[in-house]
Please model this.
Amino acid sequence: MPALTSMGRITADIEVDNVEGEGITVYVVLDEAQPVDLIIGRTWLDLPHIAYTRIGDRVHIGYREDEPFRNFPIDENISRICLKALEATKLEKDTVDLVSSRAESIENGLIMIENPSEDIGCLLEVKDGKTCVPLANIGDKNIEFLKDQCLGRAEVIELCSNVKVKERMQSSNNLDNFKEKVPIILSDINIDSNIENERKQELVQLLNEYRDYFALNISELGSTNLAKMDIKEVEGSKPVCMKPYKMNAPERAAIKEIVREWRENGIVSDTRSPYASPVLLVKKKTGQNRLVIDYRHLNSQTIKDKFPLPKLDDLLEQLHDYSFFTTLDLAHGYLQIPLAENAKQKTAFITPDETGQFERMIFGLTNAPAEFQRLMYHALGPLCNLGVLCYLDDILIPTKTWEEMIEKLIEVFERLRSTNLTLKLPKCKFGKQEVEYLGFIINKNGIKLGSRKVEAISKFPQPKSIHDVRRFLGFTSFFRRFIPNYAIKVRYLTQLTKKNEIFKWEKVREESFERLKRELTIQQILALYNPEAKTEVHTDACVDGIADMLLQLGSDDKWHLVFCVSKKTTETEDKYHSSKLELMAIVWTLERLRQFLLGISFTVVTDCQALIYMNAKKSSNPQIARCSLLIQEFDFEIRHRPSVRMSHIDAISRAPVLNSSDTLDSLIENKLEVCLTLSVEGQVLMMQHADDTLKELILILEKDNEDRTKEEKQKVQNYVFKGNRPLMMVHLSLMMVRGKDFIRHTKKYEEKYSCEVS
Model:
């Protein structure tokens, strides 16, 4: 049991079943640490006037002179002594060790610690008032004993002549093979509420039969014997060797503790590798620390591993006429894959105080998704043709009957047993009548689009102004090629956009609006995801909301919508600088669409040109790096597209449908928070591209001179466009900042720029 820290102690008289003991020392702990009001120990029970006996699972307490305790035999020669720690001692988790102690009231002799539930005890020899007590820590945390803390109580005994004392244990042993795992109970299982109790208990029994293959903590994690990940670098690559990022004292202490836990669980080992990637410490939403390795430089020189992903239509066409659906999720899937010897040294990391290398595959390595998909293919391969579906870490078992589900589970569990993989029980769902799988709702009636797949379209709010109508038309026109007679169907809406037209929302316009939304969500426009198709992710963000679209180029050479979603911004997000909000939109989107985007190359399209200058792969600034680390497992490039060509996604972001509680944190709770820090030049660039006035100048400057109107030429006559930056031709040494900043003289900027306009 983990040690508890006492808040203090009191002396009290305690009465139990009308039996009173006086002057008892009581230690006080927090309510959260102890579910009962009071725990009675041997200090009270061993008082000379108190007797007790156990019958079944009940303890009967009384005065020694009372019936039925009066005739209990009393051995006056037996004396109980306290064994106190000789010095402050730490007992590591999952270990049994000998702890030096001082035995009160005895200098030499034999003592025994009884096990009240068994007819056996622990025999110890005392010499010069000292002995060693074997203690086992089967908890998940280390236990620290203070000097003179009571480790237990023992009785002084004399041995019979035919009893021999064998050699005592000399060293500590790991308890992995002896630690009793906590059994699974019904409340631990996510099972359909309509399942009968008898079947629920059958499932509980089955899961406990395979209890070893459910990891409830990191010490129970499996390590597969089926695969080892290697890291191959392009020819001519040099070992990545970087300096550690600067940390303050509390951060360094937190890092040491995390690395120590990794070492104890066999995830990290010592190293003398020539490689050294720096680490970043970030806080999760829960306030806990997480250590992440910055593998961007290693990934940039790693040969990419491509493993084909199954096609969604091939998977989905198997799903019909099923009544029970079960989904399984591996526990820390990446950490269950060991590294090849050659790869271990390449994962070496450096902190301000130490170095280490990984023994298992870790988050952040560019080929980790492909390696994981390969593992799942080989682990479940024989079952994939027998009704078990697997897409990355999404395992689905559809069955027609409960009995068939149990049989399939046994087959899957046996495969996991043979490959030494473990599942994460809280993320598994059993016997569901309906599940969401890869963006689709699946039940016994068949397959339908997931509620979130197109809700940004189906729940698009009714326009309240002419400006709202223009936004909606800008969005729908992006897909006009899929809508027959598009111009005719929107004519009542386009009438509202005419000059001097008064906004009046009539029934005919409402019908046109709703009909258009319905046509946008039909299968002709919406396509099944194809991992082999050219893929783009369009994102947009504003103070109203965040939106994203997953588009793929079809065989008809047209862009088809695969997924579309939006969310409202929170009060905190409303205050973000526009470029930071755009960056958050990208991170949120990639995490949202992770199941589609892992293992493929794709393009992120945004109208925020400033993000292109945030090339985090070239930055050693930890705060910039945090953003990049969130998405370093994806293979993508960012491309800018002027906002005039992004009206389809702009309309969705300004009419979000998801609640603002669906935040970035809720999607990536176990990952990193979004932070943004740029150089002065980077800040200027971001300010330029966030300013509406300068956006207009940029759009004009992007045009060839002969394509500019006379009015446009007049507007930009004092500007030039270099390196995607608008420069104003003014006197040297002036740096102009619009609105609220300052004008200052600096030779640095005089030499570097004509003048930055921001």
